[in-house]
Amino acid sequence: MNINKELLDKLLSYSQKPGVFEPGERKFWDDPYISKSMLEAHLNQYHDAASRKFETIDKTIENLINSRVLKPGMKLLDLGCGPGLYAERLAKAGINVVGIDISLRSIGYAKSEAEKNGLPVEYFCMNFFDMDFNNEFDAVIQVYGELSTFPDEMLNRLLCLVRKALKTDGVFIFDVSTRTLRLKNKRVNNWYASEGGFWRPGKHLVLEMGFDYPESDLWLDQYIVIDEENYKVYRNWFHDYSLESVKKVLDRAGLAPVKVWNDLTGSEYSSEGDWIAIAAKRSPVQET
Ligand SMILES: C[S@@+](CC[C@H](N)C(=O)[O-])C[C@H]1O[C@@H](n2cnc3c(N)ncnc32)[C@H](O)[C@@H]1O
Fold this sequence. Notes:
The protein is of the alpha/beta class and 288 residues long. It has helices spanning 5-13, 34-43, 54-66, 85-92, 104-116, 152-165, 179-185, 243-252; strands spanning 75-79, 96-101, 122-125, 137-142, 166-177, 190-194, 204-213, 218-227, 231-239, 255-261, 275-282. It has two domains: 5-26 and 181-239, no CATH class; 34-178 and 241-286, Vaccinia Virus protein VP39 (Rossmann fold), CATH 3.40.50.150. Strands 3-2-1-4-5-11-10 form a seven-stranded mixed β-sheet, with helices on both faces. A four-stranded antiparallel β-sheet has the order 6-7-8-9, with no helix packed on it. It is globular. The structure holds S-adenosylmethionine.
């Protein structure tokens, strides 16, 4: 059988380290098939791949309410709310929640669960970079490290939108991963064949590679997915943070931490932790 040299060269070129934040396939969260696999992953209680397990989510809500960072009656925006696992629990705690996510499938699931359980959560399928809220929310949350996936310029843009969405005394609650987590969870070079699975419904091959950019605390998990029709390259970028580096990013957007934890369940901060969880407020320096 003849090997197609052009294809081989193209595939081999993907083994070279890409430039920082060089994008892969655009559709991922909102891909019609992948979003179905992703929803299953969000709801799966055997791993923490897309969302944390329900037990951890319950502890997170408990921490945010018990620490009085969130209070019943508040109006809260959940950015990248996925299937509404936090939003519905927050609504049960008396918080007025608006959830937005780019995945139509997750939003569809979240809406049907809210309806089934009689919870007044408002859900919108939209890109959070397109939001335009002004002085509307007592709290904005973004859970499970989504902030770590953007280059500095985009992150700054998003944080400015968050700041604008918050009321003057509003609080922004989020978590970011650290280098400690990355070195435990990094993708190693590997390939596998599948008859149908996470990436595709039918036969396909997956070539997985990890690329480290230690000088920038960056990591890339790259997946080349080859099926009978074509191949696509998916790239998941992770910018890990230390407390110092995340404070700088917040400062640039006019936000400053008021509480720092090791994770959103409220465990005490340690510089060796896998995560950093922060509650931040608009900093007075930047007030206009
Ligand atoms: C790691 S998941 C976390 C979901 C949810 N926060 C949780 O912990 O259960 C990230 C979520 O962000 C959403 N997302 C990613 N980029 C987005 C964007 N630009 N606008 C809106 N949602 C986005 C994804 O669809 C996904 O549901």
